[in-house]
Amino acid sequence: MLPIAMTDRQRPKDILHGEEEIVAVLAPLAAGAPGAFGLEDDCALLAPEPGCELVLKTDPVAEGVHFLPTDAPADIAWKALAVNVSDLAAKGATPIGYLMALSFPEAPTRAWLTAFAAGLEAAQTAFGCHLLGGDTDRRPGPRTISITVIGSVPSGQMVRRGTVREDCSLLVSGSIGDATLGLALAKDPALAAAWGLSPEETDYLLGRYRRPQPRLSLAPALRRHAVAAMDLSDGLVKDAGRMLRGAGLSGRLEAAAVPLSAAARKVLAREPQRLARLLTGGDDYEILAATTVDQRDVLCAAAAAAGVPMTEVGMSGSSPWPADGGTGLGIDGPDGQPLAVGPTGWDHF
Amino acid sequence: MLPIAMTDRQRPKDILHGEEEIVAVLAPLAAGAPGAFGLEDDCALLAPEPGCELVLKTDPVAEGVHFLPTDAPADIAWKALAVNVSDLAAKGATPIGYLMALSFPEAPTRAWLTAFAAGLEAAQTAFGCHLLGGDTDRRPGPRTISITVIGSVPSGQMVRRGTVREDCSLLVSGSIGDATLGLALAKDPALAAAWGLSPEETDYLLGRYRRPQPRLSLAPALRRHAVAAMDLSDGLVKDAGRMLRGAGLSGRLEAAAVPLSAAARKVLAREPQRLARLLTGGDDYEILAATTVDQRDVLCAAAAAAGVPMTEVGMSGSSPWPADGGTGLGIDGPDGQPLAVGPTGWDHF
Taking a C-beta distance cutoff of 8 angstroms, is the pair A61, B19 a contact? Predict the structure, then answer.
């Protein structure tokens, strides 16, 4: 075990002393979950509802990799939970609770952790779930928030990813590419002027990067009308390719059909070459769904009724995904010509 | 997002290229779990058995904090899963599956990850669970394995920690202090000679540090006969204090009653002052249980029948845990005098 180098005497008053002080700040987040035992047991207890199955996902986020050191603690917290809940939404599931392991190179200040807990409180209230348990440790390296989320789905109704079939309609929710523009703005605020964005448009794009909205309202419609679905975290092109390749199918995307926000369209009007980046940039946390063609309009209507539009952006094909390592996902550019997008999305290794 | 600095050209052949190659090495670990979908979906599906509740725990381990850089990858894997499963055993639960997030500062070699997967395979076979899903990312800092384990317990029978009552018997499973001696030996192999240990005794202590054995066979006996239980990860003194303080009760431990292995007794014969370290050293992954006095012998008999002895080491008292910040846990030394053990166990912050 590593020695703790900093003595109490060296610590400013605002630094939290000991794991128990950290737990005390987080305990209110567990108040609504009886099986969390106020974070005072070693494990959490979860009583699944009859007729339901559980959907589970773990997706840690780390400073400098998934969020910026300059991001506000409340935004970091929101995003850490949202990226996990987003997966549940795509599976047609409803969030129940989450476990959270925090790793910090130094003990957090009370101010930082309190702001972090406030962001988490806002997120869990919006998503309808509670903190069930977790762990804290100190280690070198970036601050890390490792969340495992648990959701519930009616038995047999989880929406899979690899079940896309031939000649399905591919649809996405909301708009694509906002978060990658938001990230660019967070790193270089001068871009707002270069792109001619209003303060409202700038805030909108930053918000799309910092506070992704898992599309939970779409879950019932996906369960009823989708053949397959996934959330978009690593870029539309990479994720759509992943869905198709998992089923051994080729497919096509039509770039001009991809829904863009007014702010993104404004950026694109100045820098048309940024289109490829919007399609590959990642962090969208929208949903990619496949439906049979005869269910497409039904799904779109149900999505609109749920308050989140879905738009057809392509089709799965009937030819197989190529075995030679090439891509089976063609992209038609706005000019009708094939669009080359370069590196297709995020890979850590 | 951080750029990936290393190009394919610079990578030796043995380095795994891309998240998909990493997943391919791990996929056999998920073969026995239908809801893992071969690690090819974004989420895992778990169908709880009727009449059961789920017990959940997350406890990440990081290089340099929870394991040594020199530890073998198979041992690292075993321990990463064992420390989580150990909590389930103490709650009276049976493991079902786990999610695992891997973080590495550089892509692992195929040899490293294959050995790691072999250790995990051995552990999950021993513990009766399967890999359900997970995540991999690259980030600076120590190699980290973040496991969330899910177990099953008959409804209403999870053994809590804070439910210890006045005048309960406190018992521990197996033997205490071996792992802290094993860690000392792993860091300084010359200690084996200084302590007069045989190669078998040395290997035994190293094994207790590297390959903790969650006491799953005790789960049914704990459900039936324990008032409260927890696993011992941060040292007997700290963990017993935690259990008692959570219930607002004082208590006593009798050092001479604490069960020690033959190897630990040999060390202690040479270095009697090491006793305090054995009681506070942590990484035991034994079980601390509280029973009513009339159930003590029944629990001990059931534990013996399950192949893991349990030994009475103290009692909860009837006076409250002191409110002044002092300890409510007294320790009677082997000489009958109060034993001062110094810093009482591991705290990250």
Answer: no
Q: Which of B26, B53, B58, B102 to probe the A interface (max A CBs under 10 A)?
A: B58
Distance in angstroms between the alpha carbons of the first and the last residue of chain B:
29
Residue A202 dihedral angles phi and psi, to the nearest 5°: -60, -45
List A172's β-bridge partners, or say none: A288, A311
The token pair that represents B35 in the structure block: 């809801």
Q: Please report how many Cα atoms fall inside a 13 Å half-sphere around the Cα of residue B267, on the Cβ side.
A: 24
**Is the CB of residue A156 less than 8 Å from the CB of residue A228?**
no
- Using one digit for the tens of pLDDT, what is the confidence trace for A40-80? 999 999 998 999 999 999 999 999 999 999 999 999 999 99
**Are the C-beta atoms of A85 and A212 separated by less than 8 Å?**
no
Nearest Cα neighbor of B291 from B156, B174, B153, B173 is B173
- Phi first, then psi: give them for residue B243, nearest 5 degrees: -60, -45
Of B245, B59, B252, residue with least CA distance to B162? B245
Instruction: Mark yes or no for CB contact B141/A138 under 8 Å.
Output: no
Grouping H, G, I as helix, E, B as strand and the rest as coil, residue A74 is helix
Note whether A231 and B42 are within 8 A (CB).
yes
Interchain CB distance below 8 Å, B4 and A56: no
Q: Contact A246/B22, CB-based, under 8 Å?
A: no
**3-state SS record for A185-229:** HHHCCCHHHHCCCCHHHHHHHHHHHHCCCCCHHHHHHHHHHCCEE
pLDDT digits (tens, 9 = 90+) for B59-98: 999 999 999 999 999 999 999 999 999 999 999 999 999 9
DSSP three-state, residue A338: strand
Determine the residue type at B189: P
Half-sphere exposure of residue B75, counting CA atoms within 13 Å on the CB side?
A: 17
pLDDT score recorded for residue B346? 62
- The answer to whether the CB atoms of B246 and A346 lie below 8 A apart is no
Partners of B240 in the beta sheet?
none
Alpha carbon separation from A233 to A180, A274, A346, B40 (Å, rounded): 11, 19, 9, 15
A178: closest CA of chain B, how far (Å): 15
Cβ neighbour number for residue A190 with a 10 Å cutoff:
8
Strand partners, B259: none
The residue of chain A with its CA nearest to that of B62 is A139
**Alpha helix stretches (DSSP H) within chain A:** 18-26, 73-90, 110-127, 178-187, 191-194, 199-210, 219-225, 236-246, 262-270, 275-280, 293-305
pLDDT at A17: 81
pLDDT band at B344 (very low <50, low <70, confident <90, very high): low
- Find residue B56's DSSP bridge partners: A44, B150
Hunting for tokens 């970091």 — which residue is that? Answer: A76
Q: Which of A17, A45, A91 has the CB atom closest to B349's CB atom?
A: A17
Q: What is the pTM of this model?
A: 0.94
Neighbours of B71 (CB within 10 A): 17
Low-confidence ranges of chain A (pLDDT < 70): 1-13, 343-346, 348
Furthest-apart CA pair in chain B: how many Å?
Answer: 70
Contacts of A55 in chain B (CB under 8 A): 43-46
The distance of B41 to chain A (nearest Cα, Å) reads: 6
Contact yes or no for A105/A140 (Cβ under 8 A): yes
